[in-house]
Amino acid sequence: MTDPHDLDDPALRDRAVAAARGQRPFDLLLTGGMLVDVTTGELRTADIGITGPLIASVHAPGARADAAETIALDGAFVAPGLIDTHMHVESSMITPRRYAEIVVPQGTTTICWDPHEVGNVAGLDGVRWAIAASRDLSLRTLMLAPSCVPSAPGLERAGAEVGGSEMAEMLGWPEIHGVAEIMDMRGVLARSSRMRDIVTEGLASGKLVCGHARGLGGADLQAFAAAGIGSDHEITDGDDLLAKLRAGLTVELRGSHDHVLPSAVAALATLPRLPSTLTICTDDVFPDDLVESGGMADVLRRLVGYGLDPVIALQAATLNAAHRVGREDLGRVAPGRRADIAVFRDLARFDCTLTIASGRIVARDGTVASQPAEGVETAFTDTMHIAPVDTETFTLRAEGAAVTLNTVLRPRFTEWSTREAEVRDGRVILPDGTLLMAVLNRHAGDEGGGLGVLDGWGDWDGAIATTVSHDSHNLTVFGRDAADMAAAANALIECGGGMAVAQGGVVTALLPLPVCGLLSDAPATEVAERLRVLRRATESVADWQPPTVTFKSLVGASLACNPGPHVTDLGIADGLTGEFRPAIRP
Q1: Cα–Cα distance between 355 and 130 in angstroms, integer?
Q2: Can you state the angle between helices 261-269 and 238-246, rounded to 10 degrees?
């Protein structure tokens, strides 16, 4: 999408000034709408005149009728285009153009994309691909330079490594708007040379330096902010939200953890005013959720449902967001600003009927305007650098009649625990209520993998494999039966990555994601349906126990940068202490 410097054209400003004064017609005139003024907090009737990519005038209803095109809004609500301040296109498992086809009709006009998923698979070439694949879309992409490649160096291996020199190179690209979420909290607090260099390059660039402060509080939170990091989206509850705001961080309140939102809204209600440093983001949205419920519009819908005033929600998603990303041309429906506009039927459901970006109508009534034809979207389709596996890969071997296992307790907020296990014919028999998690390095097939036992995930019958596995995106397999685990893993090795379910030694569902083992260029509705089928197949395998033991837990189980033990391709590592423990206690 267009660069902000297109508004610097004096001829454009000449036309806009003349149109505002009635000396020439508008290119586009929106009439009969209710303006959501996110600057003053007012709801007021107004007509909006647009010249090229600029808003030329916001004036009294009916004051003007001269325009090349007029659209009557019939009382609908006119808001700035929504700005998603932190997200990963890869979580939706579709390419950028397919993503735009879904979210632009929902009123989103700008996203801040951290492409660290493709970066972990394909390095700087993957980031270059993300930039190229985002060009010429109806969705504006503010690309960030991934800092967590890998997210926990020394605890896991990815397909590439980003240090200070790589960060400096990316920050020199004009398309890069800052440093993406810094997830290596341990490295930041310990002032590791790698993280020190990355943050230093970000600060020197004058661009954004974004954070990931999961579980940090007290002195550690103060230290994280003191390092120069400016934001966080890893909010765990209302108290955590207030602590992050009070620490001076911009909070990107995310919709992907719905259970946090009620307490966040309640905490905001205790403040005398909305902090200008509160923004809204989606972070991670699976394709079926994206198609069925939506992206940013769905987050707004839920926040309002939990009691947040809709105008305040829109202010956070537009004006506050524009300030955060340093785009003063965005975030307001006001003269002289960019004509990025979302028109909603109401401020409860946030059903969008019209989306305008840089003065162009880019979506009407749920349908996006034309997008680029297929091009760079099919890059990186050979990323499964791993040979087929057998049942031995998923077998814990031990001597004697019994062993003590070091286990990872619970999917979220993990803790070390232990379980006693029987040994038969040299093979460990998993205790009831546990399952085996294997993380196999798929970026270089000779690098092996790690095995660990998960506790508190319920009783399973079958296996699930995924290459969507934050953040190094190695081949991760969950199950109790080695034959099921091997079948699911080999299905992904053969198809180029994605997700697979196996039961009784047979693959029962498969979602191929050939681009980096993370994405498909098929239409979002098609990918969403295949994921629905796969989700249903997992229900006969996994003992889901919401809100903690869920399908989504699969893709975050190896997130080694977070505090507590996590299984990686190197073993079982603690993201807070850096400690490794073997699966079987010596």
Answers
A1: 24
A2: 50
